[in-house]
């Protein structure tokens, strides 16, 4: 049963990844690709799309770091509160 749950979780995570990938791709494409008169990607469009992706990755990393910091603070606060509640008077 746990193997099925694990596989189910992996499928869910992969679907979430694909959804995120599709959103980022669409957003960067809409922001950066302006000329449809040629099959070639212009250097400006290429640079824009690379910059767009870099911004997204940096933003994601920063949010992840802040999220971890927040949880550490919350856990420390809970531990301190538990320590105060657990002490005899």
TrEMBL record:
What protein name is recorded for this chain?
Answer: Mitochondrial import inner membrane translocase subunit
| GO molecular function, a single term | metal ion binding
Keywords in alphabetical order, please: Chaperone, Disulfide bond, Membrane, Metal-binding, Mitochondrion, Mitochondrion inner membrane, Protein transport, Translocation, Transport, Zinc
Tim10-like domain ranges (all copies): 9-69
Q: Name one GO biological process term.
A: protein transport
Give the gene that encodes this protein.
timm9
Could you state one GO cellular component term attached to this entry?
mitochondrial inner membrane
Keyword field contains Heme: no
Q: How does it sit in the membrane?
A: Peripheral membrane protein
Annotated family = Belongs to the small Tim family.
Q: Which organism is it from?
A: Betta splendens (Siamese fighting fish)
Compartments, record wording: Mitochondrion inner membrane
Q: What is known of its domains?
A: The twin CX3C motif contains 4 conserved Cys residues that form 2 disulfide bonds in the mitochondrial intermembrane space.
Functionally, this protein is described as follows: Mitochondrial intermembrane chaperone that participates in the import and insertion of multi-pass transmembrane proteins into the mitochondrial inner membrane. May also be required for the transfer of beta-barrel precursors from the TOM complex to the sorting and assembly machinery (SAM complex) of the outer membrane. Acts as a chaperone-like protein that protects the hydrophobic precursors from aggregation and guide them through the mitochondrial intermembrane space. Mitochondrial intermembrane chaperone that participates in the import and insertion of some multi-pass transmembrane proteins into the mitochondrial inner membrane. Also required for the transfer of beta-barrel precursors from the TOM complex to the sorting and assembly machinery (SAM complex) of the outer membrane. Acts as a chaperone-like protein that protects the hydrophobic precursors from aggregation and guide them through the mitochondrial intermembrane space.
Q: Which domain of life is it from?
A: Eukaryota
Q: Does the keyword Heme apply?
A: no
Could you describe the subunit structure of this protein? Heterohexamer.
